[in-house]
Specification:
The protein is about 20% helix and about 25% strand. About 30% of the residues are buried. Strand 4, helix 1 and strand 5 form a beta-alpha-beta unit. By secondary structure, it is of the alpha+beta class. Helix 6 runs antiparallel to helix 7 (about 290-305). The chain has helices at about 70-85, 100-115, 125-130, 160-165, 175-180, 240-245, 290-305, 325-330, 355-365, 395-400; strands spanning about 5, 35-40, 45-50, 60-65, 90-95, 120, 135-140, 145-150, 205-210, 230-235, 260-265, 280-285, 310-325, 340-345, 350-355, 375, 385, 405-420. It has three domains: about 15-180, Glutaredoxin (3-Layer(aba) Sandwich), CATH 3.40.30; about 205-315 and about 420, no CATH class; about 325-405, no CATH class. It is built from ten helices and 18 strands. The strands form five sheets. It has a five-stranded mixed sheet, with helices on one face. The chain has a four-stranded antiparallel sheet with strand order 1-9-12-10, covered by helices on one side.
Length: about 425
């Protein structure tokens, strides 16, 4: 697969916060692992796992952080491998615990989504002790406590694990600290890829664009805010990439129209054919480039590669308007709750102590056709309400709303819309 690096990668040496040299006992392949303990285990985080307890087991320590998309994408695979080799293998996820401890909620989300059953701990000290300078990072320890490999998740597969358990040698890319101390450079290969010329995370800005292929991960960028440090768009067509670059964090007092307007000679390039999906990754170290600045970089790179310009305009476009038809009826549902609670999915949901504009947004996220729902109730009090219906069905939603003295009507309003145009300048790269 051809990988295109579309922006300059600038070298900057980052050093982990380590203790004294005597406290750092990084794993060396072929040698016995130094004694260690992992804190933050168990449902309440009050359990400790020690290296002594792992004796007699084949163990993989899988280090990760909440910012590592590749780490998170590997969770289902690692969970499947653990289940396949459950009699002999112990896989332990070790999360880098930041001050706000948000990593726990990140893992819980993916645990529920993918039905994961992996042993998990959160222990920053062992990152420093083992000199884990980047994630993902897997340490393979046999039942005698000997380090057999230090790898990326790509090398964790059934064939290698089977050989690992049998005590046989297996092929892997060496990611141990000893191997990464070398800075050999092969000029025929891309700089920093697989450690070529330095560590892979030694950059100030890094962007990669590839065609999506079967078996690659699928992921969206989420909400881009002023604190966003990276943009990951995995399996997206051109339309979605442009939408992310220009639209993810735009409001300007008007709702955002969900569909771009094409003023191009060929709009077929934007359709979701499997041959036209891409993966785009843009990242920067903490505090260097954030949020909207990342989007601006992405905008320029998409224009240079695909040859289309884009801009955001305000245009009068269709919408649903949420209106009051019986205010007296609506006032019966004025919130009596002090807690703001909401849950919404395709079969309905409930809200407590919630503003009308948020209720309009919830409805609009599910309704078909997928037009924006604009709050036109002019209600200044919070509401408690709940539905148990098909949220994609317009008439079902209307019937449910009328119980509360509300209705949806088809209307129009000024909305932010992405306009995609042909770009006349010579393209820097071929589309082929």
């Amino acid at each position: 697969m051809k990988t295109i690096v579309t922006s300059i990668m600038l070298i900057f040496l980052f050093t982990s916060v380590l203790g004294q040299e005597s406290e750092s006992v990084y794993p060396k392949i072929g040698e016995k692992i130094a004694p260690f303990q992992l804190t933050g285990a168990g449902n309440d985080g009050d359990k400790v796992i020690t290296s002594e307890q792992l004796k007699g087991k084949f163990t993989i320590l899988d280090f990760w952080s909440k910012y590592c998309g590749a780490c998170i994408a590997s969770f289902p695979k690692m969970d499947s491998l653990q289940k396949s080799f459950s009699d002999d293998l112990q896989t332990i996820l070790i999360g880098y615990l930041d001050d706000q401890q948000r990593i726990k909620s990140v893992f819980d989300l993916h645990k529920r989504k993918n039905n994961l059953n992996l042993t998990t701990v959160y222990d920053t000290a062992v990152f420093n002790r083992f000199r884990v300078h980047g994630v993902p990072h897997l340490v393979w320890i046999d039942k005698s406590g000997i380090v057999k490999a230090v790898t990326l998740p790509q090398d964790a597969n059934k064939e290698n694990i089977s050989k690992f358990i049998k005590g046989e040698d297996f092929d892997f890319e060496d990611m141990s600290f000893d191997s990464r101390k070398k800075t050999n450079f092969d000029i025929s290969k891309p700089f920093l890829i697989k450690g070529n010329g330095g560590q892979e995370d030694n950059y100030l800005v890094r962007s990669i664009l590839t065609k999506w292929e079967e078996g690659m991960p699928i992921s969206g960028p989420g909400q881009i805010t002023k604190r966003t440090k990276r943009i990951e768009c995995l399996k997206m067509n051109i339309e979605s990439l442009y939408h992310t670059a220009f639209f993810t964090n735009v409001n300007n007092g008007s709702p955002n129209w969900n569909f771009p307007i094409f003023e191009t000679k060929d709009s077929l390039k934007f359709k979701g054919d499997d041959n036209l999906f891409y993966c785009y990754s843009l990242s920067s170290p903490p505090g260097f480039i954030l949020g909207v600045q990342l989007q601006r970089i992405m905008q320029n790179e998409l224009k240079n590669y695909f040859g289309y310009g884009a801009r955001i305009e305000k245009r009068d476009l269709p919408c649903w308007k949420l209106v009051v038809i019986n205010k007296q009826n609506l006032e019966e549902f004025k919130s009596k709750s002090s807690d703001k609670i909401s849950y919404w999915d395709d079969s309905g949901g409930y809200v407590y102590n919630t503003a009308m504009e948020n209720i309009a947004s919830f409805i609009g996220s599910r309704l078909k056709p997928a037009l924006n729902v604009v709050d036109a109730t002019y209600i200044d009090f919070k509401i408690d309400m709940g539905f148990n219906i098909d949220m994609s069905d317009y008439e079902s939603v209307r019937r449910a709303l009328k119980r509360y003295g509300l209705d949806l009507i088809l209307s129009s309003t000024q909305q932010n819309v992405l306009v995609i145009t042909d770009f006349q300048d010579e393209r820097l790269l071929s589309r082929q």
